[in-house]
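Please produce the structure of this protein holding glycine.
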Amino acid sequence: MKILIIGSGGREDALAWKIAQSPQVSELYCAPGNGGIERYAQCVPIQADDIEALAEFAQTNSIDLTVVGPERPLVMGIVDLFRDLGLKVYGPTAAAAQLEGSKAFTNEMLVRAGVRAKKFDVFDNAEAAREYVLAEGAPIVVKADGDAAGKGVVVAQTVDEALEAIDRCMVAREFGAAGDRVVVEECLVGEECSIKAFVDGETIVPMVPSQDYKRVHDGDMGPNTGGMGCYSPVPSVSQEVFDQVLAEVVAPTVRTMAEEGNPYTGTLYAGIILTDEGPRMLEYNCRFGDPETQVVLPRLDTDLVDIMLATVEGRLDEIDVQWKDDKAVCVVVASGGYPGSYEKGKLMSGLDEAGAVDSAIVFHAGTRKAGDDCVTNGGRVLGVTALGENFEQARARAYEAVGMVDFEEMYFRTDIAARAVGRD
Ligand code: GLY
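Below is the modeled complex.
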Protein backbone atom coordinates (compact mmCIF):
# COMPACT_ATOMS: atom_id res chain seq x y z
CA MET A 1 0.00 0.00 0.00
CA LYS A 2 1.29 3.50 -0.89
CA ILE A 3 0.77 6.18 1.74
CA LEU A 4 1.36 9.94 1.58
CA ILE A 5 1.68 12.03 4.75
CA ILE A 6 1.26 15.80 4.45
CA GLY A 7 3.21 18.14 6.73
CA SER A 8 6.69 18.80 8.06
CA GLY A 9 6.61 18.92 11.86
CA GLY A 10 7.20 16.65 14.81
CA ARG A 11 3.61 15.42 14.51
CA GLU A 12 4.27 14.26 10.96
CA ASP A 13 7.53 12.55 12.01
CA ALA A 14 5.56 10.66 14.67
CA LEU A 15 2.90 9.73 12.09
CA ALA A 16 5.62 8.53 9.68
CA TRP A 17 7.36 6.56 12.46
CA LYS A 18 4.12 4.77 13.37
CA ILE A 19 2.77 4.27 9.84
CA ALA A 20 6.14 2.88 8.66
CA GLN A 21 5.69 0.06 11.21
CA SER A 22 2.57 -1.22 9.44
CA PRO A 23 3.18 -4.37 7.39
CA GLN A 24 0.64 -3.03 4.90
CA VAL A 25 2.91 -0.18 3.76
CA SER A 26 5.02 -0.74 0.66
CA GLU A 27 5.90 2.89 -0.09
CA LEU A 28 5.70 5.88 2.24
CA TYR A 29 5.95 9.52 1.07
CA CYS A 30 5.85 12.78 2.99
CA ALA A 31 5.27 16.26 1.56
CA PRO A 32 7.29 18.26 2.30
CA GLY A 33 8.74 16.34 5.29
CA ASN A 34 11.83 17.27 7.30
CA GLY A 35 15.34 16.05 8.05
CA GLY A 36 14.10 13.18 10.22
CA ILE A 37 11.12 11.97 8.23
CA GLU A 38 13.60 10.85 5.57
CA ARG A 39 14.35 7.92 7.91
CA TYR A 40 10.93 6.44 7.17
CA ALA A 41 9.59 8.11 4.06
CA GLN A 42 10.61 9.58 0.73
CA CYS A 43 10.25 13.36 1.10
CA VAL A 44 8.52 15.18 -1.76
CA PRO A 45 9.10 18.95 -2.22
CA ILE A 46 5.44 20.04 -2.25
CA GLN A 47 4.22 22.44 0.43
CA ALA A 48 1.37 21.30 2.71
CA ASP A 49 -0.98 24.04 1.48
CA ASP A 50 -0.42 23.41 -2.25
CA ILE A 51 -3.42 21.13 -2.34
CA GLU A 52 -3.75 20.98 -6.13
CA ALA A 53 -0.13 19.82 -6.51
CA LEU A 54 -0.63 17.28 -3.71
CA ALA A 55 -3.70 15.88 -5.46
CA GLU A 56 -1.77 15.60 -8.73
CA PHE A 57 1.07 13.79 -6.91
CA ALA A 58 -1.39 11.39 -5.27
CA GLN A 59 -3.06 10.62 -8.60
CA THR A 60 0.16 10.24 -10.57
CA ASN A 61 1.70 7.96 -7.95
CA SER A 62 -1.47 5.92 -7.25
CA ILE A 63 -1.41 6.77 -3.55
CA ASP A 64 -3.80 4.47 -1.65
CA LEU A 65 -4.18 6.65 1.46
CA THR A 66 -3.22 10.26 2.24
CA VAL A 67 -2.89 11.38 5.87
CA VAL A 68 -3.16 15.13 6.47
CA GLY A 69 -1.16 16.50 9.42
CA PRO A 70 -1.72 20.27 9.71
CA GLU A 71 -5.01 22.18 9.83
CA ARG A 72 -4.40 24.59 6.96
CA PRO A 73 -4.88 22.15 4.04
CA LEU A 74 -7.91 20.71 5.87
CA VAL A 75 -9.53 24.12 6.28
CA MET A 76 -8.67 24.80 2.59
CA GLY A 77 -10.62 21.70 1.53
CA ILE A 78 -7.97 19.10 0.69
CA VAL A 79 -10.27 16.27 1.82
CA ASP A 80 -13.10 17.48 -0.43
CA LEU A 81 -10.70 17.76 -3.38
CA PHE A 82 -9.19 14.30 -2.87
CA ARG A 83 -12.61 12.68 -2.37
CA ASP A 84 -13.90 14.29 -5.58
CA LEU A 85 -10.96 12.66 -7.37
CA GLY A 86 -11.74 9.27 -5.82
CA LEU A 87 -8.66 9.36 -3.54
CA LYS A 88 -8.76 8.03 0.04
CA VAL A 89 -7.76 10.70 2.53
CA TYR A 90 -7.71 10.81 6.35
CA GLY A 91 -9.11 14.05 7.80
CA PRO A 92 -12.28 16.16 7.92
CA THR A 93 -13.88 18.03 5.03
CA ALA A 94 -13.56 21.83 4.93
CA ALA A 95 -17.06 22.15 6.38
CA ALA A 96 -16.19 19.86 9.31
CA ALA A 97 -12.75 21.45 9.76
CA GLN A 98 -14.55 24.66 10.71
CA LEU A 99 -14.43 23.20 14.22
CA GLU A 100 -10.87 24.53 14.20
CA GLY A 101 -11.12 27.06 11.35
CA SER A 102 -13.85 29.20 12.90
CA LYS A 103 -14.16 29.86 16.62
CA ALA A 104 -17.60 31.41 16.02
CA PHE A 105 -18.83 28.31 14.14
CA THR A 106 -17.67 26.08 17.00
CA ASN A 107 -19.20 28.14 19.79
CA GLU A 108 -22.52 28.36 17.94
CA MET A 109 -22.50 24.62 17.11
CA LEU A 110 -21.78 23.73 20.75
CA VAL A 111 -24.89 25.66 21.78
CA ARG A 112 -26.98 23.73 19.21
CA ALA A 113 -25.41 20.46 20.42
CA GLY A 114 -26.38 21.23 24.00
CA VAL A 115 -22.74 21.21 25.16
CA ARG A 116 -22.15 23.45 28.15
CA ALA A 117 -20.37 26.27 26.36
CA LYS A 118 -18.51 29.32 27.53
CA LYS A 119 -20.34 32.64 27.57
CA PHE A 120 -19.29 34.32 24.33
CA ASP A 121 -20.18 36.81 21.62
CA VAL A 122 -18.99 37.30 18.05
CA PHE A 123 -18.10 40.71 16.61
CA ASP A 124 -17.56 42.10 13.11
CA ASN A 125 -16.65 45.56 14.35
CA ALA A 126 -14.11 46.65 16.89
CA GLU A 127 -16.28 49.20 18.71
CA ALA A 128 -18.94 46.64 19.65
CA ALA A 129 -16.21 44.19 20.78
CA ARG A 130 -14.65 46.90 22.98
CA GLU A 131 -18.02 47.72 24.57
CA TYR A 132 -18.57 44.03 25.37
CA VAL A 133 -15.15 43.78 27.03
CA LEU A 134 -15.79 46.94 29.06
CA ALA A 135 -19.12 45.51 30.23
CA GLU A 136 -17.79 42.02 31.05
CA GLY A 137 -14.44 42.99 32.60
CA ALA A 138 -11.32 40.80 32.86
CA PRO A 139 -9.96 38.17 32.77
CA ILE A 140 -11.46 37.55 29.34
CA VAL A 141 -10.40 35.74 26.17
CA VAL A 142 -10.13 37.43 22.76
CA LYS A 143 -9.82 35.14 19.73
CA ALA A 144 -9.35 35.90 16.05
CA ASP A 145 -12.19 33.92 14.47
CA GLY A 146 -10.20 32.41 11.62
CA ASP A 147 -6.98 30.44 11.26
CA ALA A 148 -4.24 32.67 12.70
CA ALA A 149 -1.58 29.94 12.74
CA GLY A 150 -2.07 29.37 16.48
CA LYS A 151 -1.33 33.02 17.35
CA GLY A 152 -4.79 34.55 17.42
CA VAL A 153 -5.80 33.81 21.02
CA VAL A 154 -5.15 36.22 23.89
CA VAL A 155 -6.06 35.36 27.47
CA ALA A 156 -6.30 38.94 28.72
CA GLN A 157 -5.76 39.44 32.44
CA THR A 158 -6.82 43.08 32.24
CA VAL A 159 -9.38 45.07 30.24
CA ASP A 160 -6.53 47.03 28.61
CA GLU A 161 -4.91 43.80 27.36
CA ALA A 162 -8.25 42.70 25.88
CA LEU A 163 -8.78 46.07 24.17
CA GLU A 164 -5.26 45.88 22.75
CA ALA A 165 -5.95 42.34 21.44
CA ILE A 166 -9.10 43.59 19.68
CA ASP A 167 -7.11 46.42 18.06
CA ARG A 168 -4.37 44.04 16.92
CA CYS A 169 -6.95 41.80 15.23
CA MET A 170 -9.43 44.28 13.84
CA VAL A 171 -7.56 47.57 13.42
CA ALA A 172 -3.90 46.65 12.83
CA ARG A 173 -5.13 43.40 11.14
CA GLU A 174 -2.09 41.46 12.35
CA PHE A 175 -3.76 38.19 11.32
CA GLY A 176 -5.24 39.49 8.07
CA ALA A 177 -8.75 38.28 7.27
CA ALA A 178 -8.56 35.71 10.11
CA GLY A 179 -9.00 38.58 12.59
CA ASP A 180 -11.76 40.49 10.82
CA ARG A 181 -14.20 38.75 13.15
CA VAL A 182 -13.35 38.24 16.80
CA VAL A 183 -14.89 36.01 19.42
CA VAL A 184 -14.80 37.30 22.99
CA GLU A 185 -15.21 34.53 25.56
CA GLU A 186 -15.49 33.86 29.26
CA CYS A 187 -12.08 32.93 30.72
CA LEU A 188 -12.08 29.46 32.29
CA VAL A 189 -9.44 28.63 34.88
CA GLY A 190 -7.90 25.21 35.51
CA GLU A 191 -5.48 22.56 34.28
CA GLU A 192 -5.64 22.00 30.50
CA CYS A 193 -5.54 18.65 28.74
CA SER A 194 -6.66 17.20 25.47
CA ILE A 195 -8.65 14.14 24.53
CA LYS A 196 -8.42 13.18 20.90
CA ALA A 197 -10.53 10.62 19.09
CA PHE A 198 -10.67 8.80 15.79
CA VAL A 199 -14.07 9.59 14.28
CA ASP A 200 -15.60 8.10 11.12
CA GLY A 201 -18.64 10.36 10.99
CA GLU A 202 -20.48 8.31 13.57
CA THR A 203 -18.28 6.00 15.63
CA ILE A 204 -15.92 7.60 18.15
CA VAL A 205 -12.78 5.74 19.28
CA PRO A 206 -10.98 7.80 21.93
CA MET A 207 -7.21 8.06 22.19
CA VAL A 208 -5.35 8.29 25.48
CA PRO A 209 -5.39 11.78 27.05
CA SER A 210 -2.34 14.04 27.05
CA GLN A 211 -1.22 17.35 28.50
CA ASP A 212 0.78 19.95 26.60
CA TYR A 213 2.96 22.77 27.98
CA LYS A 214 2.15 25.90 25.99
CA ARG A 215 4.38 28.51 27.66
CA VAL A 216 8.01 28.74 26.66
CA HIS A 217 9.65 28.84 30.12
CA ASP A 218 9.64 26.61 33.20
CA GLY A 219 6.80 27.24 35.64
CA ASP A 220 4.47 28.14 32.73
CA MET A 221 6.08 31.53 32.28
CA GLY A 222 6.72 33.52 29.12
CA PRO A 223 4.84 33.68 25.82
CA ASN A 224 2.71 30.94 24.31
CA THR A 225 4.30 28.50 21.86
CA GLY A 226 3.05 25.63 19.72
CA GLY A 227 3.88 23.37 22.68
CA MET A 228 7.13 22.80 24.60
CA GLY A 229 6.47 19.28 25.83
CA CYS A 230 3.82 16.80 26.67
CA TYR A 231 2.95 13.73 28.67
CA SER A 232 0.39 10.94 28.60
CA PRO A 233 -1.73 9.75 30.35
CA VAL A 234 -2.87 12.68 32.52
CA PRO A 235 -3.28 11.83 36.22
CA SER A 236 -5.83 14.65 36.62
CA VAL A 237 -8.06 13.01 34.01
CA SER A 238 -9.77 10.25 35.97
CA GLN A 239 -11.83 7.61 34.14
CA GLU A 240 -14.91 9.52 35.31
CA VAL A 241 -13.68 12.81 33.79
CA PHE A 242 -12.65 11.01 30.59
CA ASP A 243 -16.08 9.40 30.24
CA GLN A 244 -17.80 12.69 31.03
CA VAL A 245 -15.88 14.53 28.28
CA LEU A 246 -16.72 11.84 25.74
CA ALA A 247 -20.39 11.68 26.69
CA GLU A 248 -21.08 15.37 27.27
CA VAL A 249 -18.77 17.08 24.75
CA VAL A 250 -17.42 14.80 22.01
CA ALA A 251 -20.48 12.59 21.39
CA PRO A 252 -23.01 15.47 21.08
CA THR A 253 -20.56 17.30 18.79
CA VAL A 254 -20.14 14.33 16.45
CA ARG A 255 -23.90 13.68 16.46
CA THR A 256 -24.76 17.32 15.75
CA MET A 257 -22.17 17.63 12.97
CA ALA A 258 -23.66 14.53 11.29
CA GLU A 259 -27.25 15.72 11.76
CA GLU A 260 -26.37 19.09 10.24
CA GLY A 261 -24.85 17.50 7.14
CA ASN A 262 -21.17 17.91 8.09
CA PRO A 263 -20.18 14.46 9.37
CA TYR A 264 -16.79 14.64 11.07
CA THR A 265 -14.09 12.21 9.90
CA GLY A 266 -10.48 12.01 11.05
CA THR A 267 -8.90 13.06 14.33
CA LEU A 268 -11.04 15.26 16.55
CA TYR A 269 -8.95 17.03 19.18
CA ALA A 270 -10.94 18.27 22.17
CA GLY A 271 -9.05 20.81 24.28
CA ILE A 272 -10.49 20.58 27.79
CA ILE A 273 -10.01 22.65 30.91
CA LEU A 274 -10.46 20.98 34.29
CA THR A 275 -12.27 23.63 36.31
CA ASP A 276 -13.40 23.38 39.93
CA GLU A 277 -16.86 22.66 38.54
CA GLY A 278 -15.66 19.80 36.32
CA PRO A 279 -14.33 19.52 32.76
CA ARG A 280 -15.30 22.28 30.32
CA MET A 281 -14.77 22.57 26.60
CA LEU A 282 -11.95 24.96 25.61
CA GLU A 283 -11.47 24.47 21.87
CA TYR A 284 -11.54 21.92 19.07
CA ASN A 285 -8.74 21.16 16.65
CA CYS A 286 -9.40 19.18 13.48
CA ARG A 287 -6.13 17.18 13.51
CA PHE A 288 -3.59 15.43 15.68
CA GLY A 289 -1.83 17.73 18.18
CA ASP A 290 1.83 18.68 18.09
CA PRO A 291 3.61 17.59 20.35
CA GLU A 292 0.66 15.49 21.65
CA THR A 293 1.08 13.00 18.78
CA GLN A 294 4.64 12.37 19.97
CA VAL A 295 3.31 10.90 23.24
CA VAL A 296 0.03 9.40 22.02
CA LEU A 297 1.27 7.31 19.07
CA PRO A 298 4.16 5.67 21.00
CA ARG A 299 1.47 4.34 23.37
CA LEU A 300 -0.65 2.91 20.53
CA ASP A 301 -0.35 -0.87 20.10
CA THR A 302 -2.72 -1.22 17.13
CA ASP A 303 -1.69 -0.75 13.48
CA LEU A 304 -2.44 2.93 12.74
CA VAL A 305 -3.04 2.19 9.05
CA ASP A 306 -5.84 -0.24 10.00
CA ILE A 307 -7.44 2.46 12.16
CA MET A 308 -7.10 5.18 9.53
CA LEU A 309 -8.48 3.03 6.73
CA ALA A 310 -11.42 2.02 8.90
CA THR A 311 -11.99 5.70 9.71
CA VAL A 312 -11.94 6.70 6.03
CA GLU A 313 -14.21 3.78 5.08
CA GLY A 314 -16.76 4.38 7.87
CA ARG A 315 -16.18 1.06 9.67
CA LEU A 316 -14.34 2.20 12.79
CA ASP A 317 -16.73 0.07 14.87
CA GLU A 318 -14.88 -3.02 13.52
CA ILE A 319 -11.50 -2.02 15.00
CA ASP A 320 -10.26 -2.99 18.46
CA VAL A 321 -7.82 -0.22 19.39
CA GLN A 322 -5.29 -1.16 22.09
CA TRP A 323 -2.97 1.11 24.11
CA LYS A 324 0.14 0.41 26.16
CA ASP A 325 0.04 1.02 29.92
CA ASP A 326 3.45 2.75 29.68
CA LYS A 327 3.74 6.42 30.52
CA ALA A 328 5.11 8.72 27.82
CA VAL A 329 6.97 12.03 28.16
CA CYS A 330 8.07 14.28 25.28
CA VAL A 331 10.46 17.20 25.75
CA VAL A 332 10.56 19.71 22.89
CA VAL A 333 14.02 20.99 22.01
CA ALA A 334 13.77 24.47 20.50
CA SER A 335 15.97 27.10 18.88
CA GLY A 336 17.04 29.84 21.32
CA GLY A 337 14.71 32.83 20.90
CA TYR A 338 11.62 30.79 19.91
CA PRO A 339 8.71 31.73 19.81
CA GLY A 340 10.28 35.07 18.85
CA SER A 341 13.02 35.34 16.24
CA TYR A 342 15.73 32.67 16.11
CA GLU A 343 18.51 31.54 13.82
CA LYS A 344 18.38 28.46 11.62
CA GLY A 345 21.10 26.27 10.16
CA LYS A 346 22.77 25.24 13.45
CA LEU A 347 24.71 21.98 13.17
CA MET A 348 23.19 19.31 15.42
CA SER A 349 25.05 16.49 17.18
CA GLY A 350 24.17 13.57 19.44
CA LEU A 351 20.97 12.51 17.65
CA ASP A 352 21.99 8.85 17.34
CA GLU A 353 23.16 8.75 20.96
CA ALA A 354 19.85 10.28 22.08
CA GLY A 355 17.89 7.70 20.08
CA ALA A 356 19.92 4.91 21.74
CA VAL A 357 18.69 5.80 25.25
CA ASP A 358 16.36 3.09 26.53
CA SER A 359 12.90 3.47 24.92
CA ALA A 360 13.66 6.99 23.62
CA ILE A 361 12.49 8.19 20.20
CA VAL A 362 13.90 11.39 18.70
CA PHE A 363 11.15 12.97 16.59
CA HIS A 364 12.33 15.67 14.20
CA ALA A 365 10.38 18.91 13.68
CA GLY A 366 12.39 21.93 12.45
CA THR A 367 15.35 20.07 10.99
CA ARG A 368 16.79 19.51 7.53
CA LYS A 369 19.56 17.40 6.10
CA ALA A 370 22.74 19.16 4.95
CA GLY A 371 24.76 16.43 3.28
CA ASP A 372 25.38 13.82 5.96
CA ASP A 373 24.68 16.37 8.69
CA CYS A 374 21.43 17.52 10.23
CA VAL A 375 20.86 21.23 10.90
CA THR A 376 18.13 23.22 12.62
CA ASN A 377 15.42 24.64 10.38
CA GLY A 378 12.68 25.93 12.67
CA GLY A 379 11.63 27.07 16.15
CA ARG A 380 10.66 23.70 17.53
CA VAL A 381 13.51 21.46 16.42
CA LEU A 382 12.98 18.06 18.07
CA GLY A 383 10.47 16.26 20.23
CA VAL A 384 12.37 13.77 22.38
CA THR A 385 9.97 11.14 23.70
CA ALA A 386 10.58 8.29 26.10
CA LEU A 387 8.34 5.62 27.58
CA GLY A 388 8.62 4.20 31.08
CA GLU A 389 6.81 2.07 33.62
CA ASN A 390 6.04 5.25 35.50
CA PHE A 391 6.41 9.00 34.92
CA GLU A 392 9.64 9.18 36.91
CA GLN A 393 11.29 6.65 34.60
CA ALA A 394 9.84 8.07 31.36
CA ARG A 395 10.85 11.58 32.34
CA ALA A 396 14.38 10.56 33.38
CA ARG A 397 14.87 8.76 30.06
CA ALA A 398 13.51 11.67 28.00
CA TYR A 399 15.84 14.16 29.73
CA GLU A 400 18.78 11.74 29.48
CA ALA A 401 18.20 11.64 25.71
CA VAL A 402 17.83 15.43 25.49
CA GLY A 403 21.17 15.70 27.31
CA MET A 404 22.86 13.86 24.43
CA VAL A 405 21.74 16.43 21.85
CA ASP A 406 23.66 19.60 21.22
CA PHE A 407 23.44 22.62 18.96
CA GLU A 408 24.21 26.29 19.41
CA GLU A 409 21.55 28.15 21.42
CA MET A 410 19.52 24.99 22.05
CA TYR A 411 16.67 25.54 24.51
CA PHE A 412 14.21 23.29 26.37
CA ARG A 413 12.04 23.39 29.46
CA THR A 414 13.29 21.40 32.42
CA ASP A 415 9.94 20.78 34.13
CA ILE A 416 8.01 18.73 31.56
CA ALA A 417 5.86 16.11 33.33
CA ALA A 418 7.31 17.02 36.75
CA ARG A 419 3.78 17.52 38.06
CA ALA A 420 2.83 13.97 36.98
CA VAL A 421 5.65 12.20 38.85
CA GLY A 422 4.35 10.24 41.81
CA ARG A 423 0.75 10.53 40.62
CA ASP A 424 0.81 7.43 38.35
N1 GLY B 1 -0.12 21.47 20.99
C1 GLY B 1 -1.31 22.13 20.64
C2 GLY B 1 -1.83 21.88 19.31
O1 GLY B 1 -1.41 20.99 18.60
O2 GLY B 1 -2.73 22.59 18.90
